[in-house]
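FORM 7B - TANDEM STRUCTURE REPORT

SECTION 1: FIRST PROTEIN
SEQUENCE AND TOKENS:
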Amino acid sequence: MINATLNQLRAFRAIVQTGSFRAAGGLLHLSQPSVSQRVRELESELGVVLFVRNGPKISLTAEGHALIGFAERMLDTSDEMAERFRSGDPLRGTLRIGLSENFALICLGELLRRVEQKYPAIKASMFIGDSGELSRKLQDRELDVAIVAQAAVPPYVSQEPVGYSQLGWFASPGLNAGPHALTPADIAQHHLVIAPQSSRMYTTVGNWFSAAGVTPARVSTCNNVMVTLQAVRSGVALGLLPIRVAEDDRLEGKVKLLKVAPRIPAHSISICHQASEAGEGLHAFIRMLKEVIADHRVFSAAAS
């Protein structure tokens, strides 16, 4: 294992930049002997000679040229790390983003395009999950910012409401639902596909049936909205889905939204972020998220 230090690499880089050991010492506020010592230690650690010395003139060996790229990357990473923790700004380094599946399906591409344009140096790490998973990751500080339905997060996670996700029962066009609104008892007669227990949607639909004193006979869970939508299209089952996600299929006549009474309660949606990281950089990113949400009409302004 090579144990070259950052200070040794800084001395090496300073010599490359300035062209001499003396000038490198001035750049680093070190004496020339100190710079020479660091380079000797680096050469000993790597087992190579980095410079050819011809009197006052120096030049890089082949190994010295090879080291330049490695040294630059290591020192840049060190600088990024120091700035990230000095500023407390997650936009300096890797930003860990959590997204609900309905947001991701509708406008992930647009979000990535805007991030690339506005923050070309940022490294984005994205997790797509349901509300329960996103809340847990925020609680465990595994995410910097997330779009969450019915967020259940601790006080050290800040929330900014951005709208509501309307939910509805969808069926294939071939289902004859009749002219009247369907009750929970009517819906319970069908094979149903709903989100898994970790999702707030699972709790919401369970409460909807419980309030009517109804227990569905056959319920399947699925953690993928598009797979649920495919099951609905095929006529295999009814599916509980965010209305906005299924909007294109509904307009194209591939599925139909069932009229039910009472309506399924909408989910409040919040942008959540670690309060300790609140700074202008993160707030600017949140403003951009809100713009994407508004431009694509991902969530409604009211609960009904």
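SECTION 2: SECOND PROTEIN
SEQUENCE AND TOKENS:
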Amino acid sequence: MVGIFLQVLPFFALIVLGWGACRVRIFPPEATGHLTKFIFFFPLSAMLFKFTSELDLAQVFHWRFVLAYFVGSLSVWALGFAVARLRGEGVASSAIEAQTGMVGNTGFLGVPMLAAILGAQAVAPILMVLCVDLIGFSVLFTLVINVARHGRAQISVMALGLLKNPMIVSMAAGLAWSSLHLPTPEPAARALSLLAAAATPGALFAIGASLAQLRLTRLGPACWLSTIKLVIHPAVVGLSAVWVFHIAPFEAGVMIAAAALPVAGNVYMLAQHYGVGAERVSAAIFVSTVVSIVTLPLILAHVTM
């Protein structure tokens, strides 16, 4: 347990560094958006391309794994949605709460941290989780919002949104390159490695800087949403993986660890874009990130036993 905590600690230390730098104005708040965009479009995309270009398509898309994660996560999404509706929230507000309780920070935190702690063999399962979150649940959320507000699905808008996401594009490009079985020229490979190396520290610093600007209001819903994300989501996904779909122990452990990640920052962007629940989402991101300093090592220690 102590060993796992010491492995996780440097990652959260960089988050704290970003938070502190922004709070004392060494790193100005207005620069956070630019840093996040840089990491999102360049180093993180380079890292994802590098990972996927070294994998076989069959390694990334293990359909039983995908179904296990999707079914477990969909159950949690439905729970978050139902509880919000029972509290009297509207469809759009309930959808953003469901998304908050289910979508973890897999891109910025999960990929670099879990790959470093669990090893290279964890990359493919992590990427499968990321694909389900980015494609499956982004589509579900957008579908629910658009049907509730406009009475139709707006398929073209959803498709365009997916095509404009650099994480999806970089993974698709990496898999395409891998399927062609072409060697990456040495200068290009070195440039890619240099750029990808900036993803982990840059993403963690950007998470911390973003947290420094979030408002802590509506703590009641934020604590509930953090509980769904950090406790209920990994528990339900674990049941789905182990008891229903009989996923191999290591892959199931990676899935559970990925489900235990704190709330993703892009959920806050969705809340702002659709004008619904931004305050409770921002509070949930802050609370879940802070609490995950304790819960994530506990879960990692359990799944690596």
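SECTION 3: OBSERVATIONS ON SECOND PROTEIN
The mean pLDDT is 90.
The radius of gyration is 18 Å.

SECTION 4: SIGNATURE
Preparer initials: ____
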